[in-house]
């Protein structure tokens, strides 16, 4: 529903296929879109939704298999671009037995994996408010909030360019309160600005230093919740960082402990202050809540 709202706001023509009549009725009342009661795994329903006129098909149901099957059908019905949301990590493994083409998919989206990757990028770049990597290039988009002691406050973009023009980095946007600005040379940076800088990965420490920020060395992390996001984060970090997961369910904590190599998994209630204190929360460099 959220995605459909955003696409509709961008003036795309949206058709929503929903098998639950109540959900379909709700969507019809809240979306500027054509809403049809039906299943993405039904060729007849897809045809009734005029799939032959679609430029993009997205399978976003709670079932991986339905999403993949519907994309395969969309491929057969000549839809140019197909997207499937999946939760099972097996489908996104490089050595999976079927290629994306064989599954009928142009893009596999794993929300939990994407969330975990974003968290890991922020752990590695602790001074940032956000980090976006560009696929196939060693370039990143870095978000940095300017504090009151930043040495670049009161400077114009032009002045920064004159002083640091030899560095291949550019401020491409500024978020100031509720507004996002595309900066020109005369724009002045003020405290609280969130600047977005595009640069090569190797230049990030230099950019961070110019803004007056300092990266905190993160060596100890506690994760609350052993769901997919928590597991993916631990898996990505456990070789270089001490990771501890607090999981409330006994059977799940045992399963996670067997799946991860170096992460310490604790069975317990993450809302128990005494437990958190016993497990050393005060000695942690970062705390990540991934429950729900």
UniProtKB/TrEMBL annotation:
Gene Ontology process terms (BP): potassium ion transport
Domain RCK C-terminal: 129-213
UniProt-listed InterPro entries: NAD(P)-bd_dom_sf, RCK_C, RCK_C_sf, RCK_N, Trk_Ktr_HKT_K-transport
Stretches assigned to the RCK N-terminal domain: 1-109, 218-292
Xref: SUPFAM superfamilies: NAD(P)-binding Rossmann-fold domains, TrkA C-terminal domain-like
Keyword Transport assigned: yes
Pfam family, one: TrkA_C
GO MF term (any one): monoatomic cation transmembrane transporter activity
Protein name: RCK C-terminal domain-containing protein
